[in-house]
Design a protein that fits this description.
alpha/beta; Rossmann fold; 15 helices
């Protein structure tokens, strides 16, 4: 096992305890997630807008701030940033609409979701650490991504998912050759299954935030925004939040940018968007709590948002506060209607999770929390094609006819 180039140490996000990245590490002894730390003063010498112009258009272009293992890559990252003029115009302030509204379409990643970002870095590092088999619980898209990258790495994968996971996610995991275990319950029950079996079965646990490197791939969404906006950041970012690794990762990226001197203390205001049927972060935020309680009887068509007890709750709540952000919930009916609106106005067929950011933006614009002159980015975290059952029900209830 060799130390990954660039990563100096792993640091606990809660107590600050340091760990050696040359050996397999998961959670801190205090039970909280670990974060990779880099030589950022060295990184900034070569990680420049000018140098990025000639690099491959994948997230591995940011090599100085990633674990520099031989990448297990399927071409992930550098997703399009769509200037959503028609959608923005529909969110009016009197006679004025949102002229600087953008959609970051993560559904264009390999396996159709942003989960590819985390899995490319996690699987690349796990392979170098000598992992023999990879395992993770999933609400859907993470399982497909892990199965794909495990296949590319030549490693077996075990995917544990709720029995009611969208069928497209189940099929893709099986197609990639993964072993699929379906349980009656939620992703929290699947996580318990992985935790109980991993040591006996010899699995490398790739669960959300239970290893340090998925967050490294996710943070590149923040680096891409900086690059795509010409060395600047937007005013507001709306992000569908289940496990929250993308939100945490982008905030980590912004901290790294500040340390490299790219930006100052200013940050985009982060908006965590959850489903009304599973909103632990929203409940904690509204109650001014620093941690979230388990959300009982979680239910939503947005399977990626059905995470009733996220491990990164304290990190998310802290980052929302630090960025002067907010958390809010939307109903399933609202997000499905917003998804139809996004598709018809901008030609983007989004996952329900991504559509949730549209209705959240509309509500925040109406309240004045978002101003018409601000630059706003909505994240669509996955393709709508994986949610055929949910969209079929939505279209039928709206009176749509089959051909």
């Amino acid at each position: 096992m060799t130390k990954p180039l660039n990563v100096i140490e792993l640091e606990c996000s809660a107590c600050g305890k340091k760990y050696d990245p040359a050996t397999e590490q998961h959670l801190c002894t205090c039970g909280k997630p670990l974060l990779a730390r880099y030589d950022l003063m060295g990184a900034k010498a070569t990680l420049t807008l000018e140098n990025l112009k000639t690099r491959p258009r994948t997230l591995w272009r940011y090599a100085e701030v990633l674990p520099n293992d031989p990448p297990v890559s399927l071409g992930e990252g550098m997703t399009v940033l769509v200037h959503a003029l028609r959608l923005g115009a529909s969110m009016r302030f009197g006679q004025r609409g949102m002229e600087r509204m953008f959609i970051k379409d993560e559904g264009l990643n390999p396996t159709g979701s942003f989960k590819a970002r985390g899995m490319t870095t996690a699987v690349s590092r796990a392979k170098q650490l000598g992992a023999k088999a990879l395992a993770a619980p999933t609400a859907g898209n993470a399982g497909g991504a892990l199965a794909a990258y495990a296949a590319a790495a030549g490693l077996p994968a075990v995917i544990v998912m709720p029995a009611d996971t969208p069928w497209a996610n189940v099929m893709e995991c099986q197609a990639f050759g993964a072993k699929v275990v379906k349980l009656n319950g939620l992703i929290s029950d699947c996580a318990k299954y992985v935790a109980e079996h991993k040591d006996r079965e010899g699995w490398y646990d790739v669960s959300t935030l239970k290893e340090p490197y998925r967050i490294e791939g996710k943070k590149t969404m923040g680096y891409e925004l900086w690059e795509q906006f010409g060395g600047k950041l937007p005013d507001v970012i709306l992000y569908p939040t289940g496990g929250g690794v993308g939100l945490i990762g982008m905030c980590k990226a912004f901290d790294e940018m500040q340390e490299m001197g790219w930006i100052g203390e200013e940050r985009p205001r982060m908006v965590a968007v959850q489903a009304e049927g599973c909103a632990p972060i929203v409940k904690a935020w509204e109650a001014h709590q620093s941690s979230a309680q388990f959300f009982s009887n979680a239910a939503t068509v947005a399977s990626g948002l059905r995470v009733p007890g996220p491990l990164g709750d304290q990190l998310m709540l802290r980052m929302l506060s630090q960025t002067k952000g907010i958390a809010l919930a939307v109903t399933d009916d609202e997000m499905l209607q917003a998804g139809r609106e996004l598709a018809s106005l901008e030609g983007i067929f989004a996952a329900p999770e991504g559509a949730a950011t549209v209705i959240a933006a509309r509500k925040l614009a109406a309240s004045g929390w978002i101003k018409p002159e601000e630059t706003v980015v909505l994240f669509n975290t996955g393709t709508g094609y994986k949610y055929a059952e949910a969209w079929q029900r939505a279209l039928q209830s709206a009176g749509g006819e089959e051909a």
